[in-house]
Q: What sequence folds into this?
């Protein structure tokens, strides 16, 4: 309870419920608030846990093109006279490309068409907004977003997921969200770790400044070295998630392995996690990387890329 109260106060909402993971939070929430008579409108690049929750709910699924407000509006118009609830969901920050969802504009659409607005802020928590309150805070949209999901497994550095919203929503989830009801919750050590992490976010904003400074430096140096860090064939990263687009899956995995052998762990991501032909090394900066570590990583990326033909020697 103490962790849930802490998160609700941090986010400036009435209440919060903590799940075992961000995956369980998304899937458990979507599947319990919608039924087969309802509609879900979802960005095409939303996280798998939202897709699975939508399938479990048996609601009718409508997918809008990535960050395409006009397409989202068209879909809302198509269903506006149908009976049933309409839930529109976007990621606050997209996990594979690091671009930011148009939370404010989508929230305005939800107001216009009477839809419920939900944001998955897994990658925005601890990164965007005041003291890392997330994308909803970044867009000053707290009053317009009904359901805010986040994880405790990324910037918070522990394990778990949470849902923030009205007292009624959270009480409903306590009684209806199946992963909350039928699965064991965290041990106290995890809750204590998370509470300490929220204290750090509240009291040490300089960490977020360092995170953004490191991000800007790393992206710029990668670009200078000739890497494709997104924005050509993929959405452009606007956050610490920085993909290095390689294209071919096999080449990407070989590059990742060669980087590891040279002392840098950088995970390759290929189909089906990302579309075919858009395989990448997915990197992310933290506030705690030193300039020396970043420079060493950059040197390794460049020398290995030249050896393996990803960059011209
Ligand atoms: C956008 C997004 N939502 C939800 C999740 C699930 O979070 P967790 O790893 O805490 O289950 C992830 C993580 O993989 C994610 O990237």
A:
């Amino acid at each position: 309870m103490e962790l849930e109260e802490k998160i609700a106060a941090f986010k400036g909402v009435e209440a919060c419920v903590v799940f075992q993971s961000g995956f369980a939070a998304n899937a458990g929430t979507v599947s319990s608030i919608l039924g087969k008579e309802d509609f879900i409108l979802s960005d095409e690049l939303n996280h798998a846990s939202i897709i699975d929750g939508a399938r479990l709910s048996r609601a009718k699924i409508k997918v809008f093109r990535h960050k395409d407000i006009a397409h989202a509006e068209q879909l809302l118009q198509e269903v506006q006279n149908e009976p049933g609830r309409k839930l529109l969901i976007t990621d606050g920050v997209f996990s594979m490309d690091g671009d930011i969802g148009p939370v404010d504009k989508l929230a305005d659409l939800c107001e216009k068409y009477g839809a419920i607005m939900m944001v998955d802020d897994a990658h925005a928590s601890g990164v965007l907004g005041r003291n890392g309150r997330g994308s909803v805070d970044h867009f000053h949209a707290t009053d317009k977003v009904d359901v805010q999901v986040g994880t405790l497994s990324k910037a918070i550095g522990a394990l778990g997921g949470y849902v923030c919203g009205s007292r009624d929503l959270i009480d409903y989830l306590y009684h209806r969200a199946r992963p909350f009801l039928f699965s064991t919750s965290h041990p106290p050590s995890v809750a204590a770790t998370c509470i300490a992490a929220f204290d750090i976010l509240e009291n040490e904003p300089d960490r977020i400044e360092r995170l953004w400074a490191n991000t800007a430096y790393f992206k710029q140096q990668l670009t200078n070295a000739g890497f494709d860090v997104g924005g050509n064939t993929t959405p452009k990263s606007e956050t610490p998630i920085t993909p290095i687009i390689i294209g071919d899956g096999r080449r990407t995995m070989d590059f990742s392995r060669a980087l590891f052998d040279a002392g840098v762990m950088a995970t390759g991501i290929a189909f089906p996690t990302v579309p075919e032909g858009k395989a990448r090394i997915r990197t992310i900066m933290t506030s705690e990387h030193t300039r020396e570590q970043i420079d060493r990583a950059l040197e390794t990326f460049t020398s290995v890329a030249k050896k393996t033909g990803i960059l011209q020697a």
